[in-house]
Amino acid sequence: MIKKLLRATYARLDLWLLPYAAKSRKFAGIYYAFFNPHFRREMHATAAGRQHYRLHEESSTIASVIIRRNIHRLEKGLSMVPRKSLFALDYIDETLKAFGNMLQEPAHQLDLTLLNYAHDVLESYFAVTTWPEGATQPGIFAEQAGKIRPLLNKTQQQAAAAPAPYQQRPRADISYHEFYKLCQQRCSVRTFLPKPVEPEILERAVAAAAQAPSACNRQPFRYIAATQGETLRKLASLPMGTVGYAEGLPAVLAVVGDLSAYPFERDRHVIYIDASLANMQLMLALETMGLASCSINWPDIENYEIKIAKLLKLQPFERVVMLIAVGYPDPNALIPHSEKKTAAGLLSYV
Asked: What are the sequence ranges of the domains in the chain?
């Protein structure tokens, strides 16, 4: 009874304070700092991510984030028409330092795929840029390249992992009509056959997800799969939206964003954008392999966040973006109609 009375009092006070918070950023700051706690976990995760980035900036972990971002920026510069004779001066030193930091790892721990990509783009960059006499950057790269080339095992036939003409990209033999049918085929399925989901199926779907665009190619997310046992049961039953069908889920993916990929608060929402772009590709990929999925909302509620962080052993700077149920659909499962908005209702021109 007392708890109910306190909640009602809090709700009335909240409604009284909300108009003041809506008036200005100053009042909103006071409101969320002293009265409404709902952004505190996001603030802590963002601060923890920034601190992790700062403390480990010279480690291979953060160096790989810097490399993915800056090599992508170099590729954009190389692809510009017209291309400048010298560009990227504000971040080339940081790029070379990160490349060198990655090379400090023992040979068996090197990410050769990423290093090959960085090497080829940097090689293309220094081949087309004109540097003033006395510049040290070309020499630094030449020294680094000498260390990495023997490890790459390249053949004469291999194409460089660098910008290439659009016409050389892989082409899908699929029409808009067929793709639209695939989009209509994908639906949120909540009744599955009692059949396990093979790990190789999940790996193929994640490989398709990895092809999605992300801001500066950082891909600040990962997938944690639960396919059996107590972990699956607990994970499936955690979201409020799975009441009634959690027990029948053959597999659940937790999509986890990594805020340690960013040194600034301005990027704190990118984990949700980038992960969501990848998730849609993952779900469409599952459809092509005979599986179905259900995207499960994960609202920011403190006690649920504590439970899932403990269950999945998350770092303070990791945030759950959403969950995805995966399985072989029951052919007799009933699917909600879910009328969609029309193109005219979603698209406008300026």
From this structure: 1-36, 55-152, 176-327
User: Is the CA virtual torsion 89, 90, 93, 96 positive or negative?
Assistant: negative
What does the angle CA 115 – CA 117 – CA 119 come to, to the nearest 5 degrees?
65
Write the CA distances from 238 to 235, 243, 296, 323, integer angstroms.
Answer: 5, 9, 11, 10
Asked if pLDDT for residue 70 goes beyond 80, the answer is yes
Query: Does the domain spanning 176-327 belong to CATH 3.40.109.10?
Result: yes
Q: In terms of pTM, does the model score above 0.85?
A: yes
Residue with tokens 């909300």: 18
Q: Is the pLDDT of residue 75 over 80?
A: yes
Q: Is the pLDDT of residue 17 over 90?
A: yes
Residue type, 301: I
188, β-bridge pairs: 293
Q: Which two tokens stand for residue 345?
A: 């209702």
Question: 234 near 311, Cβ under 8 Å?
Answer: yes
